[in-house]
Specification:
Layout: E1 2-11, H1 15-22, H2 28-31, E2 37-39, E3 49-51, E4 56-57, E5 60-65, E6 69-75, E7 83-92, E8 98-107, H3 111-140
Antiparallel strand pairs: 1-8, 2-3, 3-4, 5-6, 6-7, 7-8
Amino acid sequence: MKYQIETTIEIDASPAKVWRVFSDFKNYPKWNPFIASLTGKVEVGEIIYVDLNTMKFKPQVLKFDQDQELRWKGKLLIKGLFDGEHYFQLIANENGTTTFVHGENFSGILVRLLRKKLDTEVKKEFQEMNRALKEEVEKIG
């Protein structure tokens, strides 16, 4: 089964300013309520280490385009059980703001069992991170 969660928020800053905060992974513990830490070489093809407070995993970076997108794919234990392709996109708006898109495409045999949790808890965590990123970027100005 496949399932997608996608959240968005408008941030009053350019994509370059949003990216500076978003890609400063060492500062995640200071402001990010969802991702406690993200370490490793964040480059396409590399394995990174992500701690989500509730779980730790080692996804592979699929895309890393400055000021535009970060995308990785991870799995729970073995491929096909519960896989996720997580993405963050920055879209420039004509009024100088940025739409931050934060989502994940889930697949695997456990998706059906976890769908309610994905729709409630996981989506809420995505939205909390989005709001925290917005606050962090806009306070810098």
